[in-house]
Amino acid sequence: MLFPYVQGFPPKDTCYLYSHMNRILTLVATEARIELRERYAISGIVLYVLSSAFIVFSIWRQLPPKEWGLTFWVIFLFCSLMAVLKSFGRESEGRYFYYYTLYHPLELFVAKVVYNLILLLFIFLVLWFVLYVMAGNHIIRMGWFLTTGIMACTGLSFLLTLITSIAIKTQQNASLTSVMALPLMIPLLINILRLTAYASGTTPDENPWNEMMLLSSIISLVIGMSLWLFPYLWRS
Amino acid sequence: MMRESTTTTLFRLEAWKWTAMAILIYVFIVGWIVPLKPGIIKVSPDRAVAGEQVVIDVTGYNSAFASDSTQLRAWLSLAGDTVLSALHVQAWDDRHLSASFYIPSVFPVRQEAYPLTLILDHGIEGSSVLPNAIFITPASVQDTSELPLWYKDKIEHIHQKAGMQYPFRNILAETIRNTYFHVPMWFCMIILFGASAWYSLKYYKKGDIDADRRSVAFIKVGLIFGLGLVTGMLWAKNTWNAYWSWDVKQNMSAICLLIYAALMVMRSSVEDEMQKARLTAGYNMFAFVLLIPLLFIIPRMTDSLHPGNGGNPALGGEDLDNTMRMVFYPAVIGFILLGLWISQLVYRTDKLKGNL
User: Fold this and answer.
1) Among A88, A145, B244, B268, which one is least packed by beta carbons within 10 Å?
2) CATH 2.60.40.10 placement within chain B
3) Which of A185-199, A207-221, B271-285, B293-307 has the lowest mean pLDDT?
C-alpha cells in the first residue's frame, strides 16, 4: 500500500499510540533540526523580541505595572505571529506533498503545534527576561504568570497553526495570517490580560479562578475545533 | 423535485415574504408615531439649601400641565416614605410649571448630599418622575422639631394616562424607539451567521458547492446587518455622549465583524473554487464557535454601559414594557425574515453569476 495512513485512522497497530507519539516526535525533531541549521532563525526571533522591547521601552521610558503587562502581551502577540508564520512559510509545496504521503494530517498538525508551542514558550521566556532586565519585574505572583503564559502559548499555538495552515493556501499568506488570526485571538487575549493584571496585583479582583476557567474553556474549544478541522482543511 | 407537498406550495406562494413586509411596515409606522408618556426633562434650580422655601421651575416633555391644572400635584421624595408635598403648584403653559416646597432643615438620614426625586401627577395626563432632580445642601442651623415634616405626606392616587404610549425614560427619551431597530438587527445578524455556520457544516459533510454559496450569502447579508453597530453608535452618542466609548460590547461586536470581513478577504484571495469553499467552511465554523464566548460570555463578566451586561438588566424592567413588546417582538421576527429573504436573493444572484 502506497499511502497507508490516508485510508484509515487510527491504523490497526497493536500499540499505535506509542508509534504515533514516535512519529510526531520525529517530525518535531526534524523541524527543530531544520530551524537550528539556519542559525539566523532563532537569533532572528531573539532580535525581534529585543528590538521591539527596545522601541516600546524608549517610547514609554518607564513601565508601571499595568503597562508592563500590556506591553508584554502586545510584543508577544506580534512575535508569535511572525515566528509561527515563518515556521510554515519556510517549507516548499513539494515537501508538504511528501509529508502528506507519509503522515496522517493529525500527526502533522500535532507535530507543528508542539514545535510552535516550544517556540512560543521560548519567546515567552526571552521576552520576560528582556522586560525584567529593561523595566524591572512587576509580577508579584510568579506562579500565576507562568501558568497564564503556558496556557496562552498552548492556545495560541493551536490557533495560529490552524489559521496559518489556512492562510498558506492563499496568495498573500503573510498579511492574511494576521488579518484572520488577530480578531480570533482577542477572546484569549482578554482573559490573559486579566490574569496578568492579577499576577501583577494591579486589579482589585481577588478571585482569578473565574478567568482561569473561562480561559481554559476557550482554549479547549480552540483545541477541539482545530483538531476536528485541520485534517479537513489540509487535503487539497 | 418535491414541489407537490402542501408546505412547499405555501412557500411557493411566498406568504412569508408578505408577512415580513407587513410586519416591518407595522413596526416602522407604530414604532415612529406612537407618542411617549409625559416626562420631566429639566428642573431649575437644581440646587437648594435646607431650611428654606424653594420655588422650582419644571420643564415637561409631552406634558399638558395647563389643561385642568387644578389636578396637578407635585412631591419631592428622599426615599420611599420620606416625602414632601408641594405647597403650591402653578402651571404656566403645557410644558412649564412652578412648584414651591419647604425643605426642612433636618434630614431623617445622614448623607453627604441629599438628592431629591421630583414626582408629578395629573388626573388625566398621568404621572412623571425625575430622579435626582434637585440636590439639597444641609442647613447651618438645624431645627430637630422639623423632622416630622418628612413623614407628614404620602404619595397616593397616582394616575396612569390611558391609551398606547411608550415609557419616558430620562436618558433615553425619544431614542427608546431605537429598541425596535437596533436590537432586532443584532438578533438577525446572529441568526444569519448561525445559518451560515450550519451551511458550512453541510458543506463539510456533503461537499456540495451549493451549500457553500448559501453560507457565503448568509455571511454577506449578516455583515450588512452588522450595521447594527452604526445604529448602536448613534444611540450611544445620544445616551452615553460618545459614538465610541470603548465599551466591551462595542469592542466585541466590532471584532465579530472584523472576523467575518477577514473571511471575505480570505475568500477573494483563493483562486480554486473547491479550495475556496473548503477553507471558508473550516474558518467559518471555527470563527462561529469562538464568537460564542466573545459575544455572550466575556461581556457579561465585565462592567458595561450596555444593557444585558455586567449587572445591567436587558429587555426587562421599565425599558421594555408591554406596549413596547407589542412592537419589539414583531420587529425581531420581521427583521429576521427580511434577512433570510435578502440572503436568498443574494444566493440566487451568486448562483446565476457562477453559471454564466
Assistant:
1) B268
2) 39-152
3) B293-307
Quote the minimal CA–CA distance from B36 to chain A in Å: 40
Extract long-range pairs of A86-90: CB within 8 Å, 24+ residues apart. A86/A41, A86/A44, A87/A31, A87/A35, A87/A112, A87/A115, A87/A116, A87/A119, A88/A112, A88/A161, A88/A164, A88/A165, A88/A168, A88/A173, A89/A168, A89/A173, A89/A174, A90/A34
Whether B67 and B92 have beta carbons less than 8 Å apart is answered as: no
pLDDT tens for each residue of A210-234: 889 889 999 999 999 999 988 888 7
| pLDDT for position B344 | 92
- Does the pLDDT at position A45 exceed 70? yes
Tell whether omega for the bond before B45 is within 30 degrees of 0, i.e. cis: yes
Partners of residue A183 in chain B, C-beta under 8 Å: 255-256, 258-259, 262
Q: Hey, what amino acid is at B315?
A: L
Question: Is A112 in contact with A161 (CB distance < 8 Å)?
Answer: yes
Quickly state the pLDDT bin for B308 (edges 50, 70, 90).
low
The mean-pLDDT minimum among A6-10, A143-147, B225-229 falls in A6-10
Residue of A nearest to B285 (CA): A225
What distance in Å separates residue B239's CA from the closest CA in chain A? Answer: 27
Q: Which of B279, B300, B309 to mutate to test the interface with A (most CBs of A within 10 A)?
A: B279
Sign of CA dihedral B300, B305, B311, B314: negative
Q: Which residues contact A50 (CB under 8 A, 6 or more apart)?
A: A130
Which residue carries 474558518 as its cell?
B283
- Chain-chain contact of A233 with B278 (C-beta, under 8 angstroms): yes
Find the closest chain B residue to A165 by CA distance: B279
Distance CA B26, CA B127 (A): 28
For B201, nearest residue in chain A (alpha carbons): A229
Q: Which of A170, A191, A229 sits opposite B266 (nearest CB)?
A: A170
B278 to chain A: closest CA residue: A233
Tell me the nearest-neighbour CA distance from B247 into chain A, angstroms: 13
Q: Read off the pLDDT of residues B135-150 as tens digits, 9 standing for 90 and up.
A: 888 877 777 787 788 8
Mutation to test the B interface, candidates A186, A203, A228, most B Cβ within 10 Å? A186
Cell numbers given for A44: 532572528
Ramachandran category for residue B160: left, alpha or beta (phi over 0 → left; psi -120 to 50 → alpha)? beta
ipTM of predicted assembly, 2 dp: 0.80
| B277 close to B209: Cβ distance less than 8 angstroms | yes
Q: Are the beta carbons of A232 and B282 separated by less than 8 Å? A: yes
CATH class of B39-152: mainly beta
